[in-house]
Amino acid sequence: MGHHHKSNQAVEGATDYSRSRGMPLRPDLDALELRADRDRREMALPTATPLSPQAAYLEVQAEVDRRASTGELPTGTVTRRTRAPFPPTGYQE
Questions:
Q1: Does pTM surpass 0.70?
Q2: Segment 88-92 mean pLDDT
């Protein structure tokens, strides 16, 4: 009995030219960050330094406290029946 299957190269084509290698399994995040910083400098954009998790938390907490003190965020002291049906808006009526 003869061999009746085609070879992988005949079925798939030349691997050097016909298929791409695809995305890497894990992108190099350090190289990506370096490229992004270089691009920001070339475009004269401010280069943002990431905040530590603690500093980011404190920044968000300060914003939440500010909004709660001005009444933009409900604080839980008003019952559902007595509060307005829609949250306050920053738009003028």
A1: no
A2: 78
